[in-house]
């Protein structure tokens, strides 16, 4: 389940919430109680390191003709 970060426009409170993709976005701030929440979008949580993830990477086996 993805983790979404929310910030209140009214009081500036920032928090994270585990939600399903199909869940409706939260609207009410747990700190001040106002309906002023907005989702914050950040970097993607997946990082590919090493070789083999790109079509331009060469395979480790050599097949000389």
UniProtKB/TrEMBL annotation:
<feature type="domain" description="Putative regulatory protein FmdB zinc ribbon">
    <location>
        <begin position="1"/>
        <end position="42"/>
    </location>
</feature>
<protein>
    <submittedName>
        <fullName>Zinc ribbon domain-containing protein</fullName>
    </submittedName>
</protein>
<dbReference type="Pfam" id="PF09723">
    <property type="entry name" value="Zn_ribbon_8"/>
</dbReference>
<dbReference type="InterPro" id="IPR013429">
    <property type="entry name" value="Regulatory_FmdB_Zinc_ribbon"/>
</dbReference>
């Amino acid at each position: 389940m993805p983790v979404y970060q929310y910030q209140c426009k009214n009081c500036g409170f920032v928090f994270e919430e585990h939600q399903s993709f199909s869940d409706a976005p939260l609207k009410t701030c747990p700190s001040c109680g106002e309906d002023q929440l907005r989702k914050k979008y950040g970097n993607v949580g997946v990082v590919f390191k090493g070789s083999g993830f790109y079509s331009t990477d060469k395979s480790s086996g050599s097949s000389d003709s």
